[in-house]
Specification:
The complex is a heterodimer of chains A (about 325) and B (about 260).
Chain A lengths: L2 E2 L10 H27 L7 H26 L7 H19 L5 H26 L4 H19 L5 E3 L3 H7 L3 H19 L1 H11 L1 H6 L4 H27 L1 E3 L4 H13 L11 H20 L5 H26 L2
Helix pairs in contact in A: 1-12, 2-7, 2-8, 2-10, 2-11, 2-12, 3-4, 3-5, 3-10, 3-11, 4-5, 4-10, 6-10, 7-8, 8-10, 11-12, 11-13, 12-13
Chain B lengths: L10 E10 L2 E11 L4 E6 L5 H8 L7 E6 L2 E3 L4 H7 L1 E4 L11 H5 L6 E4 L2 E4 L1 H14 L2 E2 L14 H14 L4 E5 L7 H16 L3 E5 L3 H7 L2 E6 L2 E7 L5 H9 L1 H6 L1
Helix pairs in contact in B: 4-5, 5-6
Classes of the chains: A mainly alpha (about 325), B alpha/beta (about 260).
């Protein structure tokens, strides 16, 4: 005899909308700019190494922050400090480069020291949120201010510190930062989708109490997630300093919201428990294509903000629609 | 059938007392449970049912008395240790991760790992296989395509079954179920009661807590009644009726009014 539970099976139809729509939207954007470009300037938009490189480069900076942010948001948190942690990192790189001049050790030293520096705010975020029970929004907002001040203090009198260094320049220009970001994304995608670390990230975001009862060391895991987030902010800062030959304390300021936007557009729920890094990649590309594409078709720059804002709102509306239909009573 | 006292008890609660801020939450409560026996635990709100199961499951430590399981004294540091001994508690909220699939829930916190090119990947194939096996073992049908969907897509009874299946898979010999049917519709309540009976046949001991005396009478071999932190009585289910149990639950107040 088999007990068949027949009644009250909930609808799972709308789930695919959330998964598919970022792809459709990215595709539609690319088609639109391609057609516009062919008609108006008789050139291809996409079949153009310069354009592709520019879009990918512009996507890589928010994407790096968004990689860590994806883990945080899936675990039902938020990390508002990533922008200024990135700035602190950029200044740290610049200071190491100033101290070391043109020596070859500057590159590895800058990377190691900067990542160590960034682990401090990440660790404090983790302790505040996981062990002391501070809401993620407040804890990381505090760290937003702390990292901001620390960044400006570390930069000394001026806002930026210049870095003339060959190795750093190699790291920050051309295809290097794009390839590096892609490689990191691939590794973290595997971590998120195939390992216990990833599985526990979803479990914590889905139901914290269940994760605790299942014996998962939730405090340790959450702390690790905020360390990962700060670490990627650090990598973002390193690439920024390498690319521009300067470190600015506010280097990452505009990227904070882009990083959250990329995660949300990519289909993660701000309620936690869902999201993928592939989605985040698509989200970052959508933002980058909007920015670059609107400049390309010569629309006033301020329209970019409006366009990205509208996309964010749409994403959240779709997310809520999913919640209501997919999981609602 | 495995009536009480015929074999060595699998669980013995010996004269357990616990106080919270000067109030006696439990006073000198003793219980015994045989292998494959279903004990109904009843009592009014605040009678101490939850406190008692939290002591057995290692959440609280009694101020006096001892808990013995499979002839070993339990003195756990945390609930994990009790689970490792084979006592699983299923609370009303089921402790499922609603956003994960059936297999992930069965293995939550204990995922099997395979090395793929040295990379420690979760063995999702095995988790899926086990999920199907476990559901077959407890006679629950869940459509194949739903095995890979988040368990929030499933009905209350199916989710209950997954929580039970998880406990059984990890070799629970004693299952403590807190109001397993409270959140379910009537047809699903019946399925869960069927499930309890088939677990019993498989030799699992069960402590069943329910406000629904009908469920208690339908599934239990014995009924223990708590009142204001003390054991008001214990009866073989076959030798008592609802009126006597209710009387034990509410005490003399009932008698005076009757």
């Amino acid at each position: 005899m088999t007990a068949a539970f027949s009644p009250s099976e909930r609808l799972d139809r709308p789930a695919w909308i959330g998964r598919v729509w970022p792809w459709l939207f990215l595709g539609a954007l690319l088609v639109f700019f391609e057609v516009w470009s062919r008609l108006r300037v008789d050139r291809s938009f996409l079949w153009n190494v310069y354009n592709v490189q520019a879009i990918l480069l512009a996507a890589s900076a928010p994407l790096l922050l968004a990689i860590g942010q994806t883990f945080v948001i899936i675990a039902a948190g938020i990390d508002l400090s990533v922008g200024f942690v990135m700035g602190l990192a950029a200044v740290t790189v610049a200071q190491v480069a100033v101290a070391g001049g043109e020596a070859a050790w500057v590159l590895p030293a800058a990377v190691v020291i900067t990542l160590l520096v960034c682990l401090i705010p990440g660790w404090i975020n983790g302790v505040l949120i996981a062990r002391l029970g501070v809401p993620a929004f407040i804890g990381t907002l505090g760290m937003y201010g702390v990292a901001r001040g620390a960044g400006f203090l570390a930069a000394g009198s001026g806002m930026t510190v210049s870095v003339p260094h060959e190795g750093l320049a190699w790291l920050g220009t051309g295809w290097t930062p794009i390839a590096l970001t892609g490689a990191l994304l691939a590794v973290m995608h595997l971590v998120l989708s195939t390992t216990r670390f990833g599985q526990y990230t979803y479990a914590i975001g889905g139901n914290l109490q269940s994760a605790v009862r299942a014996g998962i060391d939730v405090k340790r895991h959450l702390t690790a997630i905020y360390l990962v987030s700060a670490g990627f902010a650090g990598i973002g800062g390193i690439l920024y300093a390498a690319r521009y030959g300067a470190g600015a304390a506010n280097a990452g300021e505009p990227l904070l919201l882009d990083s959250i936007a990329a995660v949300v557009i990519g289909g993660a729920s701000l309620f936690g428990g869902t999201g993928t890094l592939i989605g985040t990649l698509i989200g970052a590309l959508i933002i980058s294509v909007i920015h670059f594409g609107l400049i390309f078709i010569d629309v006033d720059a301020f329209w970019q903000f409006i366009a990205v804002g509208v996309v964010i709102i749409l994403s959240v509306l779709i997310d809520q629609y999913k919640e209501r239909l997919g999981a609602g009573a | 059938m495995n009536p009480s006292g015929s074999t060595d008890p699998i669980l013995e609660v010996k004269s357990v007392s616990i106080r919270f801020g000067g109030v006696d939450a439990l006073k000198d409560v003793s219980l015994a449970l045989a292998r494959g026996e279903v004990l109904g635990l009843v009592g009014d709100n605040g009678a101490g049912k939850s406190t008692l199961i939290k002591i057995i499951s290692g959440v609280y430590r009694p101020h006096q008395g001892e808990v013995w399981f499979e002839a070993r004294r339990l003195a756990p540091r945390d609930p994990q240790e009790v689970r490792a001994h084979g006592i699983e508690t299923i609370y009303q909220d089921l402790a499922l991760a609603d956003n994960l699939d059936v297999g992930s829930n069965i293995f939550l916190g204990r995922e099997p790992i395979v090395r793929r090119f040295g990379w420690p990947a979760i063995d999702r194939g095995r988790m899926r296989r086990v999920a199907r096996e476990v559901l077959e073992r407890i006679d629950i049908a869940i459509p194949e395509r739903k095995l890979d969907r988040p368990v929030q897509m499933l009905s209350g009874g199916q989710r209950q079954a997954i929580a039970i299946g998880r406990a059984i898979y990890w070799n629970a010999r004693l299952l403590i179920m807190d109001e397993p049917t409270a959140a379910l519709g009537v047809p699903e309540q019946r399925k869960v009661m069927e499930l309890i009976r088939s677990l019993k046949r498989a030799g699992v001991s069960i402590i069943l807590i329910s406000h629904n005396l009908h469920d208690i009478f339908a599934a239990s071999d014995r009924i223990a009644v708590l009142r204001r932190g003390e054991k008001a009585g214990e009866r073989r289910t076959a030798e008592t009726d609802g009126e006597e149990i209710v009387h034990l639950m509410v005490g003399d107040e009932y008698k005076q009014r009757a």
